[in-house]
Amino acid sequence: MDFTKLASLIPGYEKKMVALESLLTSVPALGPENGGQGEAEKCAALEGWLRRNGFSDLKHFDAPDDRVESGFRPNLVATIPGKRDDFAVWVMAHLDVVPPGDMAKWETDPWKVVEKNGRLYGRGVEDNQQGLVSAVFAAKAFIDNDIKPAHTVKLLFMADEEVGSRYGIQYLLRTENLFRKDDILLIPDGGDSAGKTIEIAEKDVLWLRLHTIGKQTHGSRPDEGANACLAADDLALRLHALEKIFDKKDPLFAPSYSTFQPTMRLANVDGVNIIPGDDVFCMDCRILPCYALSEVMEKVTACCQDVEKHYGVKIEIEKLQSEESPATPADAPVVVRLSAAIKAVHNLDAQPVGIGGGTVGAYLRSKGYNAAVWSTMDERAHTPNEYCIIKNIVSDAQTLAVLMAAD
Questions:
Q1: Per residue in 251-284, is it b (16+ CB within 10 Å) or e — as a string?
Q2: What pLDDT score was predicted for residue 356?
Q3: Do residues 239 and 306 make contact, with C-beta atoms less than 8 angstroms apart?
Q4: How much is the CA Rg of the chain, to the nearest whole Å?
Q5: 95, 97, 96, 92: which is closest to 173 by C-alpha?
Q6: For residue 337, what are the CA distances in angstroms to 185, 191, 288, 346?
């Protein structure tokens, strides 16, 4: 049976795809940083479904985490043996989701899938369950029809992607030897509405927490204190202005420049007439790969020192996340093979791009593995009324099946 016939079987799974999305959405998987108990319950529900549907080779690589009741964060690998095992085709999706946010902005229950006008609504249906479900049913087409893929296929269901991947891909890269340099590594966790773009590069990520320590005093006597809020405001503007220092542009990315953005700010004082002695804010910096993060940190440190001197405060810098990642070459096998599959199913000429957001691809590339990120999606991740389009689940499963079948 050729791959076009195999792909033609996948639309028949549509109702089962919706049912699996519904099952996964009904089991919230929030990290402890977001007030949850991790992914153990959701992974158990998925594993049960997989076993009932013909997936027999399942193996856990769980990361210990005493912050959650289960004591671990699950990482599950499903293997479908291929005709050859010279390399494996990996499709990896994450199990965790983000909180729903302001419930007043949701038109449906975020933990219950609602199907409407060809869309599924609910938290996690796109990020990252769409890619997960597409991968599962692409593999299921081989299992149900007793067909071996050309090369071994491995589906990886990871923990902790939304809060830094310390218990997910970072744990696996540190403690296991799962991947080979020739493996095809695909992450269906980003894309565009046509399914045309293949993400091969990410901006370097630098998240900072900046604690300004001054001296609290009465609002009428700033001369007796050191206004931590004022100093922090100045610091935020100086750090934002680094966009004019690190000003190179790269059309691979959108936006094409490095960004330095103040984001979260913690409460400081409880009264209008109190000059704060402490202030904490965060920066989300997305840096073009042409710059070293060490170079960026030198400028950040210099800005902090200038503010300390000017306002008589002390500033503590904490790196919440710092990740540099090389690009996957545009002619890497994963890009070439995926482009051919996209052409076969979507009749589109794929376009390599870079992104400012972060995926687990950055961690893989930093260890020397060529990884690509691709899906067909409207990019509704983390928004109220998150949705995915059912036909995208189907067509992406067809594309993955073609990728898995390719010799």
A1: ebbeeebbbbebeeeeebbeeeeebbbbbbbbbb
A2: 83
A3: no
A4: 23
A5: 92
A6: 11, 17, 27, 14
Tokens of 94: 């994450």
State the virtual CA torsion across 125, 128, 129, 133 in degrees, nearest 10.
140
Reference 251, options 365, 362, 372, 354; nearest CA is 354
Say what the pLDDT of residue 2 is. 67
The first and second tokens of residue 312, run together, are 């008589």
* 24 and 111 Cβ atoms separated by less than 8 Å: no
pLDDT under 70: residue ranges of the chain = 1-2
Any idea which residues carry the catalytic annotation?
96, 161
Backbone φ and ψ of 302, nearest 5°: -65, -40
Query: What's the 3-state SS for 133-177?
Result: HHHHHHHHHHHHCCCCCCEEEEEEEECCHHHCCCCCHHHHHHHCC
User: H-helix or E-strand containing 335?
Assistant: helix 333-346
Distance CA 349, CA 271 (A): 59
Q: Which residues pair with 275 in a beta bridge?
A: 217
Q: Find the DSSP H helices in 217-332.
A: 228-240, 293-311
Instruction: Answer whether 257's CB lies under 8 Å from 249's CB.
Output: yes
pLDDT number for residue 7? 86
User: Distance between alpha carbon 289 and the CA centroid of its chain, in Å?
Assistant: 18
| Burial status of residue 109 (CB atoms within 10 A of its CB: 0-12, 13-18, 19 or more) | middle
> Which phi and psi (to 5°) does residue 283 adopt?
-120, 135
